[in-house]
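Hi everyone, sorry if this is the wrong subforum. Our group has a chain we'd like a structural model of before ordering constructs, and none of us has done structure prediction before. Sequence below.
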Amino acid sequence: MKIHIITIFPESFQSYLDSSIIWKAREKGLLDISLYKLNDFSTKNFKHVDDKAFWTHWQVISPEPLGKAINHIFEKVWKKIPVVYMTPSWKLLNQKKVETFSKKLNEFIIICGHYEWIDQRIIDLYVNYEISIWKYVLTSWELASMVFIDSIARFIPNVLWNPLSLEEESFSKKLSGKKEFPHYTRPRVFEWLEVPNVLTSWNHKEIDDWKSNNLK
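Answer:
Right subforum, don't worry. Here is the predicted structure as tokens:
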């Protein structure tokens, strides 16, 4: 999977990209992420990329630098690829959509806006998917893009050490879209709370029944 990220703050991604499963996926060559600083595509003296929106009190990302950045990536990869805009527009991400995107998007662009919006003409001309992680506004959408990347990268073959963990997790088809059952590990007794006896019984039928009865 190849992801091209357009952002005002590329440095905000570094610790995330160099950690945990995402780092391992990049090391294995399963996930390729390129960062593009939006200001590099600005022609203004101070490399500004926003301007005051008409009839409002806030700044909006201008279409010129963003359009140049998108077209630069198209030229770099020799083709037009899907463009994803992280947005507060209430088109909410869920597990079913995550699984769909993980199969559909092999190479794509993510636009990380600043404050709430980008110029609508960029959305009209270039954006294929608007994705929101929930109904709130962020100062910058780098955080939302990291959530999106993390959610879909888990489905890339060989990224997770045990792919079976994808089958029985919260919101999966096997659990009928419900939240997972509680989990326990050693020690068997912690303070006054004890691991349910059924989980140490080795009776697979009873354990499966317990799991089904404890879905949230």
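For your construct planning: The chain is about 30% helix and 15% strand. The mean pLDDT is 90.
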